[in-house]
Design goal:
253 residues, 2 domains, 6-stranded mixed β-sheet, 4-stranded antiparallel β-sheet, 10 strands, globular
Length: 253
């Protein structure tokens, strides 16, 4: 059994290829400290979702190691996945059902107590939605409902793929406040992927940057901000550093 003193996620040597295409991931290493809010950042197509799908057992691992709270994923699949809540790509909600009815479907799948439904609805701020169907929710409400689904079985780790994608500024703020609450009040470790530095820098404690299937940086936000130009020693702002890491000229951004 792993312990909570172990990193929430420890990945080493992760390489993955789809068919005969060039590798989608090459020797990826990642460490998500327990208790962190970790931003997984990179341009579209950089390998973020592939990494997350491998981490959640949705793709078969080809090469490398994945440990969650000290336990190897493949050898302890049931125990590992029971500690993870996730929302990947499309929120898993039914538009014709209310928030409560959606959660009842997933409660039965997870096998958790019925008391979890009002608890998570209160947690994500949807306890007053009543008989309103999910297809009448705003995008921000739908995203919060998807997070509620991920929280039903009381996970220690929450993995979210682009949770603010398509949201207006108010929706982004709502989700950001919710994630901070989950991390600070419930001690849930959070891994959130994004392609926007401006989105994650207000939220995360740690950051990993992936580009073209390879990790370009991993560390704290302070460590990222401390990076300097090799030739002049000039300190750059976070956006310029990020553009350097993904090989994009600021003029083209």
């Amino acid at each position: 059994m792993g312990s909570d003193s172990s990193p929430a996620i420890a990945i080493a040597g992760l390489t993955h290829r789809f068919g005969r295409n060039p590798p989608a991931l090459t020797n990826v290493a990642m460490t998500v400290p327990t208790g962190a809010i970790y931003g997984f950042l990179g341009p579209n197509g950089a390998g973020k979702t592939t990494t997350l799908r491998l981490m959640l057992g949705l793709l078969r691992r080809q090469s490398g190691q994945i440990h969650v709270f000290g336990q190897a994923l493949e050898e302890n699949r049931g125990a590992v996945l029971s500690r993870i809540g996730s929302s990947i790509e499309v929120p898993s909600i039914y538009g014709s059902l209310t928030a409560t009815e959606n959660l009842e479907v997933w409660r039965l799948a997870f096998g958790c107590d019925h008391s979890r439904i009002p608890a998570v609805l209160e947690l994500v701020g949807l306890s007053e939605t009543g008989r309103k169907r999910a297809d009448q929710f705003s995008l921000g409400m739908k995203q919060r409902l998807a997070i509620a689904v991920a929280l039903l079985h009381v996970p220690r780790l929450l993995v979210l793929d682009e949770p603010t994608n398509g949201l207006d500024p108010h929706g982004i703020i709502e989700v950001r406040k919710l994630l901070r609450k989950l991390n600070h009040e419930l001690a849930i470790t959070i891994l959130v992927s994004s392609h926007l530095l401006s989105e994650v820098e207000k939220l995360v404690t740690h950051l990993g940057v992936i580009n073209r299937g390879r990790m370009a940086f991993e560390g704290t936000m302070a460590e990222l901000a401390g990076r300097r130009l090799a030739d002049t020693g000039e300190t750059k702002d976070l956006e310029a550093i990020f553009l350097d890491l993904i090989g994009l000229d600021p003029v083209d951004a």
